[in-house]
Amino acid sequence: MHIHILGICGTFMGGIAAIARESGHTVTGCDQDVYPPMSTQLESQGIELIAGYSPEQIRLQPDIFVIGNVVTRGNPLMEEILNRNLPYISGPQWLSENILRHRWVLAVSGTHGKTTTSSMLAWILDYAGLNPGFLIGGIPENFGISARIGNTSPFFVIEADEYDTGFFDKRSKFVHYHPKTAILNNLEFDHADIFTDLAAIERQFHHFVRVIPNNGLIVANGKDPNLKHVLKQGCWTPVEEFGTESGWHTKGRADNTIDIYCNETFHGSLQWDLLGEHNRMNALAALIAARHAGIPVNIGIEALAQFKNVKRRMEKRGTVNGVSVYDDFAHHPTAIQTTIEGLRTHTGKARIIAVLEPRSNTMKMGVWKDSLAKSLSEADQVLCFTRDAHWAKDAMLPLHNKARCFDDLNQLVQAIAVIAEPDDHILIMSNGGFGGIHEKILSALERT
């Protein structure tokens, strides 16, 4: 089969392209912006890329066009496909029908922690010799790739996103995946560009719950009231909870060791370097899901002790003159707060300089203007890039003198270089490339 993917350079659609190519399909694709590293990764797999959405691409005559959710009406190639009544399908539906149909799907959903938890789960299965397929919205450092088919295994781990499927299918992506094992990590309001309120997201999560079989398992965060509300709407699948004393939970020690319990039963101790309560919750979810797939908890703990995290999740990009620079994907107030708190447990009294780009669609709309300052309050200094989010200037006022806002990236970099001192920790948070700020800061520090 020849498939032509519209929006191929996104993480999800690029993963589908890689899996389709690995499955033996001919794959071509296009995107508005075709550049490294995704373009290099795809081209190395024999996937031809085309810049832009010219209608002439129909001359490729693929068997089907696979449409990413970045594509909207008015897109010239999409309009030509519609005018000619050519076959097309969404990425999630293509994946469901061609890859997932006969697999044991382990799906990881939630507002936060999907990528990290999916990576942990895939690594546990791999460590146990099960060679799972996976499609993850980041690059787990244990694998160095975001997707693979795992042909010899019945298991497939997928990051189950609640964002919409496409302009022609407004259901959340995850309803297509039909998992046997599903993690419900947490649930908050987000994606204000497509959801009107929390109830609208809860409705999609319940649609997801409705397609999980009764011989499967739901692994749910027992502390999350919004998830409890979802499950109360109807649940036909066994549920195991984590994060509560009556379910799976952890007890931390001073030496960064965590003891793992189910109710009062001790299951083992995990020594690792990951920071924060949120990562302990992620680990519990992954261990329970892997246990459902037949992996004993002690083997899962052994695997997590060798887990290397995910790129752009508290990733240390470098240290110059005693100043450490970290990159993190946090872009929601809850994720921002837990990320800073996690770093604080590592740094102690050393200064944390938080650098934020409010870049997500929800952030740009100013939805979090009343909670953003509080989420940053644990940092010692806050620098916010407000070029595309001018509302954030007022949102920073509760932080008084420890917050500064910049519309110019170079001025922001220079300000960081001026205030940085040995033993400082610079935490950069954005769900985008942030104009290459990480390398610019490291270079500026070298010059000071």
Automatic annotation (TrEMBL):
It catalyses: UDP-N-acetyl-alpha-D-muramate + L-alanyl-gamma-D-glutamyl-meso-2,6-diaminopimelate + ATP = UDP-N-acetyl-alpha-D-muramoyl-L-alanyl-gamma-D-glutamyl-meso-2,6-diaminopimelate + ADP + phosphate + H(+). Pfam families: Mur_ligase (PF01225), Mur_ligase_C (PF02875), Mur_ligase_M (PF08245). InterPro entries: Mpl, Mur-like_cat_sf, Mur_ligase_C, Mur_ligase_C_dom_sf, Mur_ligase_cen, Mur_ligase_N, MurCDEF_pg_biosynth. Residues 312-432 form the Mur ligase C-terminal domain. Residues 2-101 form the Mur ligase N-terminal catalytic domain. NCBIfam families: mpl. This is UDP-N-acetylmuramate--L-alanyl-gamma-D-glutamyl-meso-2,6-diaminoheptandioate ligase. It comes from Nitrosomonas oligotropha. The lineage of its organism: Bacteria, Pseudomonadati, Pseudomonadota, Betaproteobacteria, Nitrosomonadales.
